[in-house]
């Protein structure tokens, strides 16, 4: 039985889980769950994830959700070494701290900036990080950009003219 990722391309966290799989070099069976059509509320998906959120990863009898948990699991279970998620408790604590900072602080702010297509070049560190990611992660453009563009389009469609 292979690994299945329930994925919604416009979701940044969902794209993060897919990028994590690509980073460790594994193929996953991507199943699209369209949140715009409430597919996360279908009975079959709720059996997989009672919180009905994406991303959700199923690996055998394991079903986990939250992009950070998925990334840590994939790096631990399938990473070629511990470079992405170190075994050393102090080095791992730094990674965990950054993952928690991302979910509580960074991601909400980045989403607000990037979702509507704002220019990130004034944010040199953010722009450099995005550039490094695009070069270092296999399949970055395919796994990330199409969904990011779809998310931005959805957000912009809800804004009043001139609201940007």
Automatic annotation (TrEMBL):
GO molecular function: glutathione transferase activity
Pfam families: GST_N
CDD domains linked: GST_N_Delta_Epsilon (cd03045)
PROSITE patterns, sorted: GST_NTER
Signal peptide range in chain numbering: none
The organism's place on the tree of life at top rank: Eukaryota
Cross-referenced InterPro entries: Glutathione-S-Trfase_C_sf, Glutathione_S-Trfase, Glutathione_S-Trfase_N, Thioredoxin-like_sf
Alphabetized Gene3D superfamilies for the sequence: 1.20.1050.10, Glutaredoxin
An annotated GO BP: glutathione metabolic process
Annotated GST N-terminal domain residues: 1-82
PANTHER family reported in the protein's UniProt record: GLUTATHIONE S TRANSFERASE D10, ISOFORM A-RELATED
Protein name: GST N-terminal domain-containing protein
Lineage start: Eukaryota, Metazoa, Ecdysozoa, Arthropoda, Hexapoda
